[in-house]
Amino acid sequence: MLDFIMEDEFTLIMIKPDAVKRGHTGAILKRIEEEGFRIRGMKYVSLTKAQAEMFYIVHKERPFFGELTQFMASGFIVAAVLERTNAVAHWRKVIGATDPAEAEDGTIRKLFAASKGENAVHGSDSRENAKLETSFFFNALELV
Ligand code: UDP
Ligand code: MG
Q1: Integer Cα distance of 25 and 53 in angstroms
Q2: Any atom of ligand 1 within 6 Å of the Cβ of 13
């Protein structure tokens, strides 16, 4: 159904609860446009703890899993599917390292993240995960 996003042109991003709460949604959406991404689907939602656990299931054995999923269920988020040449890698470059202390100047995490856990944004790490993560949030009718 979502095979079109197997091309290396799509990625799934989230604006996490910390960034939404602090009022950075607009700035991050502006950056998305400035970086040449096209928004193919977008929703403003909140996750339950169980839904956050489902999304981050690959991290279930990690020590930070409980904290991460509680944080991700703590407020509204924006989830979006973005299209651009080399979308996965380009978005990862734009957001910077997981820990804002290690992120390069000008990256979204350097600008807006408070800590390694509450780090403003998510980005898929591969095209396979972009597809899986997109199917978590969107069905075919919700993508343009
Ligand atoms: N995370 C955390 N502590 C860590 C590593 C990760 O709280 O030591 C959180 C952080 O919010 C991160 C998410 O778990 O964004 C997923 O971790 P991953 O290693 O996939 O980082 P990302 O791909 O988001 O940069
Ligand atoms: Mg990751």
Answers
A1: 23
A2: no
82: which 2 tokens? 């973005």
Indicate whether this model's pTM tops 0.85.
yes
Residue 59 lies in a domain: no
Predicted confidence (pLDDT) at residue 100 exceeds the cutoff of 60: yes
Task: Name the nearest CA neighbour of 60 among 68, 72, 126.
Answer: 68
CATH code, domain with 93? 3.30.70.141
Spatial CA neighbour of 1 closest among 143, 141, 140: 140
Q: Is 68 in the pocket of ligand 1 (CB under 6 A)?
A: yes
Q: Which of 24, 59, 90, 122 is flagged as catalytic? A: 122
62 within some domain: no
52 lies in some domain:
no
How many domains in the chain? 1
Burial class (CB within 10 angstroms; exposed 0-12, middle 13-18, buried 19+) of 132: middle
